């Protein structure tokens, strides 16, 4: 008997940040996933099984994450993990998950380690930060004529991956990587760093900062009259809040991600329907990035459960995952797994803030 | 006899499980000086603290001018005219001497009167005037004691509770303090409750006296009567037969604990 | 009330206050040893985690509770312990039995380095200075990437002892027993310190530096020593934590952990060894209990619909508020009162435990 | 030119720190407690203002929302003390520290539930308007921050030094029992100062939100502000401003001229250094005990 | 050579000269009393001896060696113990533990041994307990042995402080107002104790006291101070008869009374 599966129920776990520094991603992701599961459950579930999502909040703290993991795997005995947030938390969970054969699906981090080194239980949602940067910097050079690359980042796994992406991209393109500044997650003053980068002559800055910090940094650059610089973020900066800052402060900010923004696609029937459902349930006008990712992951899980058939085992489920291939209308990308490709959507979408909304400017597959 | 201004009935106070005063009843009549004598740990301080609201009594009643005040917050009791000059000084160490004194007048609103009384206190204790700007915490022990007394005077109380006012004062100042106490009592009619180790002076000054032992009142009489009592003489006034002192290597214990 | 007749000085000097204590603590130890046969894998994992927190808590308790020095940066010493332990094992091939004490020593040394320049700091000033050091250490871990693996962190190898391999997932029972043994050893050492001149000089420094000095206690040396021992114990806890989580990086030991540690010992009961254990129980089991209650409520109200984000930490915070309002002396302080109540039975008074009004004086006079 | 720009915006940032630090100092000065929820109170103030002004919420005019926010936060501060902290009166300070930390958890939770975890921006008339002197750009928000902070510091300083209530607040922090002996209603005085610091937190929150966006984790800024208060000498109002400005200036200058890891660590290095050489802050409020 | 010598010691606080060019010597085996009005600088002299303050000028010698190059914590080791005017006990500890801290300078064990509580440490502990027990007997502190300081009455604390100083087994004992806050009877106890300390234990005593009856009963020599300066020095009778002392300190009508 596979753990977490009964005739009437399948239990899914999520080790989440619901109240810590990344709650802005975690909380809406869970909301969206639950919305979708409720819908599926109301329609009778998957092969007669109700999906139950158990969420543990680790607030981005390692010891709490370990306790949560212990509870989910050893007490709740979940069948699979979904949307777990945090690179170190995910990495630390792999030994236990591998030991128990629990698949880790679409963690809320785009770190390379989510599928590297490969393992049958590891599945990632979208392209990694590193790939996003590699592609986006090339785009910025060829299409925008940017030739002096710089970086502002938090020296965390997330920040360093983005910085490495930018450095490697510059090297590959034969343009200089001029300068970089490092920041603390609670830093909110970028005048010094920006004047430094300005004096170095940067014209493209790869940013790996918190959402709130990105807004402040871009606004500060405008304020000190530095208009001829472009900021480029990865998927962690591809956030509705950045586009929605009043006064057009963040106009012209670029972000690379594995999906495209909803706002421009509200006309599409699937998108419109989902957005309405989400708004009705939460009262938020427009679902944010977290919600979008949560929804996509939930859809993916349900599709895999369906494909795995009524006789649910880990092996069967993993095989079913590896056979999945479909269009995700909401995220606007193609999910495509195989035995040696555990990354769902490989596309990289580059978007820009225009008139208070994200606009897709390029898509590289 | 008229209703006493302060009447304590059957009071009990505890520190956690420790019973510090056990059914104490005390009467203080308006215009009187009442002294409470007793050895170390008899519960004198506890009694005064309970009256001034710093401690909550477990049982019993306290009436001030016929009104029950037990269990009130201390600041309300001060507003009714009871000021407590505590044992061990308790000054505000980082405030200046003058600020300390003015805090004594916290409940008063007559600026001119406060100024006047401030000068009066400076008159009693000129050293405080010299050190008016110095932080109270850096005063010498005796100076802090003067400050604590002066601060109490500035409140212009109806009833003053004095806990060992002569602690650490020079002999000259002890005399002065008691002169002041007497003067306040006769000239301004301030009622006093006085706890003192220096039983001789206390009985000289007071009209009435109580003796406490292990939380109980064991004697209670007019001050001169007490002063004449043999027990009091032996244990509180230190009167002894001549010559005994140098030989005596043992001593009588007045109580067992 | 139980009255203890002491017949020799040993009665005061002994490890336990009297036979009853010895009996109860031995019983507790027996239960602790038998625990793997009583509970399942999940609970055993949580108990192991509780032991780690208790050891870390003892480290901090020694400093805060018994020496009166607040630290809000103890996660840094957890980190020192965790990293050096793994480095000794990986780079020098030392066995755990050597690497763990060495890691403790390294943490103790780090603590000493911090204590020496800060011996003049007190109370909140020391707390904020150590907090700054805690924040700095997070960055230092990143800077020392060649050793620490930087932000990607390092993996702790399995503990090998007498041919048995201890792994959090493969052999949690073994790990639990190993950690229990370490905890008991540290506990005994701690108790020994408290009943010897060292412990008394700690208490002296806590209560009055001026008179401690007049008694011939070298304040700077005593405080440095207290820091070193405290950080050493915490470092051992760090080494334990490293093996328990298997992998860790700079973010594992952030300021929130330091705050949690302090919170833990205060809730447990500051100034009591037992307080560290009480606190660890709260820190480990309360969130889990909240989760279970939440799951049950969710189950009753029809499954997994809307979860309120952060509800757990909100409830956790609220319960902590309640605990401190209810008993500022912590859970162990409350337990002591309850015990007195029963010992005095039936001679208790109803409101014997009502707090008598208490008042504070400034700590700005040093 | 760079340096001038850095100076000006460092000053403005420093004033925000100083303003939050002032909240710490007020409470410390009057109760000797350290309010670790001060940063979260600031966050709450910012969100209340946002909830009152923003189009998506109550959409009140800014001039109405500001005094309302200050009032609401003063009430929050007052209630925090009257309902919760008062119960720990006379208990060790560390209990209060832990209590406020726990209250901070609850505040963040409440803010998250009401306003969500996504960053939002206050629709403030101060935001995004610049004043230019030559090459130096000064945001209207920054000018406001500097002016308000200095005015508040001076005002509070005189309140504590000159008024009876101010001195009574200091007295009740130095010796609670003696303060009661003098007839000072110590508990009420404490609640008052908590209300005051709630109001200051509201002002800090509004000004901060005008400078950027906010989310429930904004309160962590309180840690840096607390460092500022300690650098200045906890308990000293000018010290809070001084400490705030030191941190405010160190940040941009080290980022500009040192760069790299060192710049990131600078504020905390400075804190440790200052404490090593002046153990109780620059304007030390600690006195040697006389025995 | 005198046991303790102060030579032209001066100390200023800001503008105030608390101790002004004071010189005196305490001989081995005597009880020496310092008297003087409040704020005369008596406690400050104690603080100078225990190295809490650095003098502006002058020298302080103990057994011929200058104390000025000693750290405050080394003073006890040299054999100087003291009590404090305002009582500085370890509040959160029992009487017994307080006294045991007094044994700190006699400690021979090291922290590592203490962590393992070796038999040596245990033997040492017993030795300290024995010594402390003698002090407890001497001062009649038995009823309070296990009591926490925080709940003790003022007078008992004074005695505990004295006991803690005695546990050091000093050569010189500094007592700052040992009888303040004590009743007449308790003051008599103190007088007996001081006599015993001098005669039986052979400890030299330097004492500050306002109770002139105690001063004249126990002290061999008295020095009167005022405003930081010496007024008079001599036997208790001589000093109490000194008109300057009477005017500044005792008050006229009390002079014969106290003598
Ligand atoms: N904080 C406390 N905790 C526990 N017990 C206390 C506390 N304070 C006082 N006591 C006890 O209460 C009793 C009465 O103490 P109190 O201070 O009232 O005595 P007192 O008569 O004023 O003595 P003294 O003359 O020394 O000032 C004493 O036995 C003392 O041990
Ligand atoms: N830290 C200080 N700052 C300023 N003045 C001080 C300080 N310490 C002591 N003084 C002053 O020095 C003088 C001497 O004080 P000291 O405590 O030695 O007096 P004392 O003789 O012990 O008096 P008492 O009998 O009242 O205890 C006093 O006037 C006091 O105000
Ligand atoms: Mg008393
Ligand atoms: Mg003195």
UniProtKB/TrEMBL annotation, chain B:
* Similarity comment text for this entry: Belongs to the ABC transporter superfamily.
Q: Which UniProt keywords apply?
A: Amino-acid transport, ATP-binding, Nucleotide-binding, Transport
Q: Which CDD domains match?
A: ABC_TM1139_LivF_branched (cd03224)
UniProt domain ABC transporter: residue ranges: 6-239
Keyword Repeat present in the record's keywords: the answer is no
- The name this protein carries in UniProt is ABC transporter ATP-binding protein
Q: What SUPFAM superfamilies does this protein's entry cite? A: P-loop containing nucleoside triphosphate hydrolases
* A GO molecular-function descriptor: branched-chain amino acid transmembrane transporter activity
Q: Please cite one Gene Ontology biological process associated with this protein.
A: L-amino acid transport
Automatic annotation (TrEMBL), chain C:
Q: Where are the transmembrane segments?
A: 20-38, 44-64, 94-116, 123-144, 176-194, 225-244, 256-286, 307-326
Q: Which InterPro entries match?
A: ABC_BtuC-like, ABC_transp_permease, LivM-like
Chief location bin: membrane
Name of the featured protein: Branched-chain amino acid ABC transporter permease
Q: Does the keyword Disulfide bond apply?
A: no
> Sorted alphabetically, which Pfam families does this protein's record hold?
BPD_transp_2 (PF02653)
Q: Which GO terms describe its cellular component?
A: plasma membrane
Where is the protein situated, by its record's location annotation? Answer: Cell membrane
Keywords tagged on the record? Cell membrane, Membrane, Transmembrane, Transmembrane helix
- GO function term, MF aspect, one: branched-chain amino acid transmembrane transporter activity
Which source organism does the UniProt entry give?
Sulfitobacter aestuariivivens
Q: What is its membrane topology? A: Multi-pass membrane protein
Keyword match Transmembrane helix: yes
Automatic annotation (TrEMBL), chain D:
**What InterPro entries does the entry give?**
ABC_transp_permease, BCAA_transport_permease
Q: Please provide, alphabetically and separated by semicolons, the GO molecular function terms listed in this UniProt record.
A: transmembrane transporter activity
Matching Pfam families, A to Z?
BPD_transp_2
- Which topology term describes how it sits in the membrane? Multi-pass membrane protein
Q: What is its main location?
A: membrane
Name one process (GO BP) from the record: amino acid transport
A single GO CC term for this protein reads: plasma membrane
Segments traversing the membrane: 6-27, 34-52, 58-80, 92-116, 136-160, 192-214, 226-250, 262-281
Instruction: State where the protein is found.
Output: Cell membrane
The similarity annotation says: Belongs to the binding-protein-dependent transport system permease family. LivHM subfamily.
PANTHER family according to UniProt = ABC TRANSPORTER PERMEASE PROTEIN, BRANCHED-CHAIN AMINO ACID TRANSPORT SYSTEM PERMEASE PROTEIN LIVH
What this protein is called in its record is Branched-chain amino acid ABC transporter permease
* Species name: Sulfitobacter aestuariivivens
Automatic annotation (TrEMBL), chain E:
UniProt keyword NADP, yes or no: no
Give all residue intervals belonging to the ABC transporter domain. Answer: 4-252
Q: Does the keyword Transport apply?
A: yes
A GO MF label = ATP hydrolysis activity
One Gene Ontology cellular component annotation held by this UniProt entry: plasma membrane
UniProt keywords (A-Z) are: ATP-binding, Nucleotide-binding, Transport
Gene3D superfamilies from the UniProt entry: P-loop containing nucleotide triphosphate hydrolases
Task: Report what the protein is called.
Answer: ABC transporter ATP-binding protein
